[in-house]
Amino acid sequence: MNKQHRVAAVHDLSGVGRCSLSVILPTLSVMGIQACAVPTALMSSHTSGFGDVVMEDMTGYIPKALKHYQTAGVDFDCIYSGFLASGGQVDCCLDFFNAYPEALKVVDPVMGDQGKRYRTYTDELCRRMAELVSAADVITPNLTEASILLGISYPVSRLTISEIRSMLVKLSSKGPDTVVITSVPMMDGTSCNVGYDKKNSSFWRVPYEIIPKHYPGTGDLFASVLTGGLISGDSLPIAMSRATSFLEYAIKTTYGYGTNPREGVMLEKCLPELINRRSFTDYSAL
Q: Which of 88, 130, 154, 282 sits CB 3.0–4.6 Å from 115 for a disulfide?
């Protein structure tokens, strides 16, 4: 019997606004990977632009779901976590990691963006997130989250290659073999997603064009395509390039239609682009 890749996606679910599980599930599915939702929170919408959000914490559900999966003999090739509603959910993720030791452990340490920490992320929750990062194989922080994890101020100027390499190596020294930092302004004037593969001692960069709009959920989309690529056998630079190119395509498509940014990117129009699994070559060594 042919085995299909299966991912446990430990993220929140927003009813309105394209982010977290609402983009992760269809993205991985289109890439040929079975995505199994393990919701950390149920939210009426994401937290940017829709006013007061109704939220239900799902901490009590997660260990029950894990126990059921183990009893039923359900296996996972990857455990992929994102937004966590409480420090207790870090323990839930670690329990998933321990239950499936052979699975690829991907942590998107959702804590903030554009130099600011999300209001739900206390010092204690950020400390616990760092603990989860140390148990991961792959992490995908944006520059804000990378700064939080390293305990440094958010950079106010463009970064040199030496500074970026230093950040990548220091993050990897905390545990993960693969580190990808998104949204990095570089000294040469480009904006790039950058990565480090500790096992091969290799550094990578993928440039992208800045579009003057901010769409919620783009980090979730990037990390999902990256994760899907790695599970399917892509090398790190190919997976980074595929994720960057698809996200740029989705953002440009949405920008062209002029929809309200709070709705997120127009994923439904863009998903067919992932089906062909085109190879991208716009990466280079860092």
A: 154
Q: What is the pTM of this model?
A: 0.96
37 by DSSP, 3-state: which? strand
User: Which amino acid would we find at residue 73?
Assistant: G
In degrees and rounded to multiples of 5, residue 136 shows phi and psi of -90, 160
Q: How many angstroms from the chain centroid is the CA of residue 57?
A: 20
Strand order in the sheet with 13-16: 13-16, 41-45, 55-57
Among 122, 139, 37, CA closest to 85: 122
3-state helix, strand, coil in the chain (%, to 5): 40, 20, 40
Q: What pLDDT score was predicted for residue 133?
A: 98
165 CB burial (10 A radius; 0-12, 13-18, 19+)? middle
User: By the 8 A CB rule, do 236 and 194 touch?
Assistant: no
* Contact (Cβ atoms closer than 8 angstroms) between residue 42 and residue 58: yes
Q: How far is CA 112 from the centre of its chain?
A: 12
Q: How far apart are CA 45 and CA 93, in angstroms?
A: 23
CB crowding 262-271: b at 16 or more within 10 Å, else e: bbbbbbeebb
Look at residue 125 and tell me whether its pLDDT is greater than 90: yes
> Which pLDDT score, from 0 to 100, does residue 3 have?
77
Q: Is 106 helix (H, G, I), strand (E, B) or coil?
A: strand
pLDDT band at residue 13 under the 50/70/90 scheme? very high
Which pLDDT band, with edges at 50, 70 and 90, does 281 fall under? low
